[in-house]
Amino acid sequence: MRYGKGAVLVRQLKERRLARLRGLYAIVDDSAAWPPLELLRAFLRGGAAVVQLRLKAFPARELCEVAREAVAVCRPRDVLLLVNDRPDVARAAGADGVHLGQEDLPAGAAREVLGADALIGVSTHSDAEIDAATAAGADYLGFGPVFETRSKRGARLPAPHGLAGLERAVRRAAPLPVVAIGGLTAGSVGGVARAGAACAAAIGEICHAPDPESAARALAEAFARG
């Protein structure tokens, strides 16, 4: 009986997290001139529903410290906090989950580290990658690039898929939510919302903006309007 009750609680926590995966998915990148926590707070003021820490140059100890502080800032505001690449850091910091690239730890291995209630997202760029991530137990999929992007330094990305490609990916991934990424602006996120994406992810448009809060707000409001 205790096991059954625990399983129900785990499922409910996962469902609550998934329900919050809607709107602006703001990525705190270490290429920004702003300190990570300052940037995070600006994104929250701008209306971000999800924040991902993408601090690839940070040593594990420093990343964990930042992630713990980020969780303390996000949790009272009911904003999801995810860590890029590092399920160990996500677990140690008490984050809501992790986001994995194609060359990172497999989703199944990340699940063993994080447990059943955590969110695991996987970046995908093709039908085959969508199918593989779904089979591996991902909770949501990142898909892109939708438009041309310069934010993924050194990454070898396919040609932009456009809104039609995003719409096909949303249908293929269903019922998993899809986070659109790649060259999104306040002028384009309405189309992303209409294509069925649960979230619009942004890096350069908000991390390198003169006013990150205003840039985040413009994206969040445009996405909400659809």
SSE topology:
Elements: H1 2-19, E1 23-29, H2 36-45, E2 50-54, H3 60-74, E3 80-84, H4 87-93, E4 97-100, H5 107-114, E5 119-124, H6 127-135, E6 140-143, H7 162-173, E7 178-180, H8 189-194, E8 199-202, H9 204-207, H10 212-225
Quick tags:
8-stranded parallel beta barrel; TIM Barrel; 226 residues; alpha/beta
In short:
The chain is of the alpha/beta class and 226 residues long. The chain has a single domain (2-225), classed as Alpha-Beta Barrel (TIM Barrel), CATH 3.20.20.
Helix fraction, binned, reads 40-55%
Broad CATH class? Alpha Beta
The name of the CATH superfamily reads Aldolase class I
Which stretches of 5+ consecutive residues score pLDDT under 50? Answer: none
User: How far is the N terminus from the C terminus?
Assistant: 45 Å
What overall geometry do the principal axes of the alpha carbons give?
globular
Give me the CATH architecture, please.
Alpha-Beta Barrel
Order of helices and strands: HEHEHEHEHEHEHEHEHH
CATH T-level fold name: TIM Barrel
Structural class: alpha/beta
What is the count of distinct domains? Answer: 1
The protein's oligomeric status is single chain
- Strand percentage: 15-25%
Strand order of the largest sheet: 1-2-3-4-5-6-7-8
Count of helical regions: 10
Cα Rg: 16 Å
Mean pLDDT across all residues, rounded? 94
Q: Kindly state the number of beta strands.
A: 8
